[in-house]
């Protein structure tokens, strides 16, 4: 019965590989109706799943008792996971175990056999979605240990913040991969058919070799091509046979050997073979070599490409060729007079002409008196042809085997070693990026060869590194290169739209949103780009609708929830913004942008303790982000921890000495601590970095007021008003008449500044109140 299922499976797999799912399902249903067993049930469920009918596959497997088959168990668990039945998927994978906490991973691996790595990966995904990250990490590590080429498991571990030793990508993994590919489960249904084909080829070769040793009259009339049954076997098995086996089975016949030599339009040139001495003439040589410069060969009897011979031999051949030419002229002059001897004269002339010599082949002219009768000559020539063909085929096959062994083995090992090295480099770079050690990640990514660096995956991660470092210009250039080389690639381009939002490049952002929407309207990145474009044009309501659409298309996207929360924060919908940020944290606990968004809301609500807690969580994820450290310092200052806040600001400036936001808050904090000269020094440096920021001159006015420099105080206040004539920074007007008070009013202004320059990717704040967007100026520039 299994033979019947295997024979039908060949056609079903052929339909699937040619994307003909309708016929594959129809044939699988007919087989299931005819033979209801484990194999036909699993085959139909698998066909349903590959065609996208996950519910059909789930119900078929759930209502059939084939869960004892490892492949069927894995497919059922996969169906449950895809339709969000996580508890049921976990119970299917665990089997008799009551809970995942009591399961032993070694026993789990034994139960699932060859599917253990994929079953562990699926179990880890279930644990990750149900917030059991420690167990998920264990399962991911175990699956990666079984099959180190499960890159998604490695990425998941990096996403969870785990560090994995990249030495797991080593040469020993190739052996395990080969053992998986050569397991009996993979090739059992089709191994016998290939053996039959190869044995039939051997039979044909033996029969041909045997028949060639017989005389012509006694040979059976035999076809050189295989029988139709052989063609049918090859057609049926072509779908499930490795390409190397197919080529081996085809080229094992003489026709296959010759066809491989004659590919690409080249002419076949046989090896050098010396014929037997008893052949008087070669009227129809089997496969004559290609003649080059025939006139030169006929006159002088040598070839430049042949092996070197002595000078005496060349002189002898030249004399013999001259004699033959003179005899040919005499014979031609007597043709018209004596027609009866025309044919013999022609044959004699042809014999006396020296034939073009081959390498290691010398054919001496023989007189007509020594030639036997016509019948004997044909028999000997044909017998020689068959023997020459047999020997040529043997030489060709031996030569091809030697070339394959000498060329393919080093090439394959070199490719494998290159792939392993690239795995190590990419894995180490991804770990640095997941820990937000972006500069180290950039060094590793740039050390990769160009052919691997110019792939979408590597370019996208390299651009993300610059994006997290707030180097938006370089990030934009890499994203633009990615769009030029791979215009069909959309995944991850929502970050590109945020980069363009920070650069205020409305034309490029609108173009990107239009192109992504035209390419794939149902991709979440397209709607995120549209939302950013609308937000840049201050159409916040429409931007919110675009981000909601992105969430509908990708409910697991924490970044889409973060963007939506930022939009709600702009229109002071703080409760809705808080809900979006918390959802993003639930989906990705390592999203520092979401933690920062929650903290900024608490800071606006003057809940400073809660704000400090969430800022601390954000800085623990991204330790080298100076803006997050600056926000934490502001929250700690409001909690009456000014000394700790000042230390944090100094640490942030060590990371980025020209960070305008950190310098501004440090100057304000020094002013509050009545360290006026230090504050003035910081503000003078800040004025060189941000020469057009009105709040800088406002703070300079207050410092000079405390230092009794009233004329400087009025001058800087005037410049501050000139840079903000419309009063966009309302805090300036509110604090104008409080210059002599304790600087609580100033610190309240610092809170608003902090919320306006938040480092959430799409904070969409007004540019006139943000110090983050000011580019450093040259030190020689002066404010007039």
TrEMBL record:
Pfam families recorded: ANAPC3 (PF12895), TPR_1 (PF00515), TPR_19 (PF14559), TPR_6 (PF13174), TPR_8 (PF13181)
SUPFAM superfamilies documented for this protein: HCP-like (SSF81901), TPR-like (SSF48452)
Composition bias, Basic and acidic residues: 327-340
Superkingdom of origin: Eukaryota
Stretch list, region Disordered: 268-289, 321-410, 757-784
Biased composition (Basic residues): 344-353
GO CC entries: anaphase-promoting complex; cytoplasm
TPR repeat spans: 524-557, 558-591
Feature: compositional bias, Polar residues: 364-395, 763-773
Keyword Acyltransferase part of the UniProt annotation: no
Keyword annotations of the record: TPR repeat
Stretches that traverse the bilayer: none
Annotated GO biological process: anaphase-promoting complex-dependent catabolic process; cell division; metaphase/anaphase transition of mitotic cell cycle; protein ubiquitination
InterPro entries for this protein: TPR-like_helical_dom_sf, TPR_rpt
Family of this protein: Belongs to the APC3/CDC27 family.
Protein name: Cell division cycle protein 27 homolog
Organism name: Adineta ricciae (Rotifer)
Taxonomic path: Eukaryota, Metazoa, Spiralia, Gnathifera, Rotifera
